[in-house]
Amino acid sequence: MPPSAAKDAGGAAELRAAELASYTRKAVTERSDLTIVGDAVYDAKAFREEHPGGAHFVSLFGGRDATEAFMEYHRRAWPKARMSKFFVGSLAPSEKPTQVDEGYLRLCAEVNGLLPKGSGGFAPASYWLKAAALIVAALTLEGYMLLRGKTLFLSVLLGLVFAWIGLNIQHDANHGALSRYPAVNYCLGYMQDWIGGNMVLWLQEHVVMHHLHTNDVDHDPDQKAHGALRLKPTDSWLPWHSLQQVYILPGEAMYAFKLLSLDALELLAWRWEGEPISQLAAPLYAPAVVCKLAFWARFVALPLWLQPSLHTAACICATVCTGSFYLAFFFFISHNFDGVASVGPQGSLSRSATFTQRQVETSSNVGGKWLAHLNGGLNYQIEHHLFPRLHHSYYATIAPLVRQRIEAMGYKYSHFPTIGSNLGAMMSHLGKMAARPTSADKLARPSEKSSVECRLRLGAACARGSQASDAASLISWLG
Ligand code: HEM
Question: Per UniProt, what is the membrane topology (predicted)?
Fold first, then answer.
């Protein structure tokens, strides 16, 4: 047999063996080198080196189900045939494969059609001026204050510039949305470490957990307030929650102190909010530790060494509090507002609701294109959650079409015209959660919902051409 034919025969035998192998989800979770997509299991360790978007994105999904991650980050169907060389087995028949959302893929095709030809959805040339201006502003402010001493005004300004770098540069970079060149996204992703955060922890918290499990009562880290706030009906009520509308805004200014201190512990334990980071992403560990130490040395130790005073310490805190407030404020209002959905047992949406519905009904938009320029498009949170690897410059353009299609699907699309109206909706939501639950609230749990409401929901599901996921959603909602 010629060598090539022998190799082919070997390859076919390997493929047959792979077809016979079957993995439970637990078995995949215990091994960081595998990943699940649909009903198939792939060798993530081998594939990551060939991943056109960069090895680290695939590494983070080692040991996890990447079906929805692929769908939302590539806006198209899984290339099963092309991936057959990494196929190692099937999901065990006892496991339910994650469904692909066909309605979402149709929406992706329409949205792709709206993008400028050849842009691939990456940043347009004009964006790089904004990015450069922000980086120069941060370096100038920090350098000036190191040489001349800190002032409160410039420190607050630096906090704002840090927040805008977070929103306009690191955020898109770490979603792979800035450039078609993975190295550019990877390097600019480290701007998160520059402003005091941590890239790998952010990827775990935001890309792996928050985006795929938005407002999930158990799995969204942004919904875990550790008793400080009551954000959803499933959270236990504690006496201080009656004041949560009062302390939420000062709390947002203090939030970054938790990140600055506890980040280090999470990094050492290689996890976020109890969810282990895949061992496949271990090469990101050493750079993360170095960057963390470098930030503390550059931003805290150096200024205090050059100008040791309480004033210097206060100015450092002013930068941290300003950046913290700005970022937390805008993230918080986009997922906590009157009528927002929560996902999971006893939430208003079942986990088996479509990907589109789970993303859209847990997020809200505010303002328009000018706020999008300032805030890296994160005021278009719905479009961002649907298409995180689309550069923010395109959100305002695609929003009208997205809204039309979402409403046609029968889902709720929340867009607040002003920041004030969004803030009001957030306060109203917090106010409702602040009230001590009564036995009547328990009666209002899904299992006690009125039959009229049941019929309305069922009618809406039928109107959009009822699918299994709608039925599952209804069953879950009924409790
Ligand atoms: C989570 C963040 C991710 C980002 C930012 C990302 C980025 C990219 C980019 C830039 C490309 C090349 C351009 C394109 O084909 O669209 C690509 C291709 C691809 N990615 Fe990812 N990716 C991510 C996650 C994943 C995951 C978790 C998997 C699967 C385990 C995956 C599988 C693939 C495959 C199979 C291709 C080739 C697609 C094809 O040829 O049709 N990606 N990715």
Answer: Multi-pass membrane protein
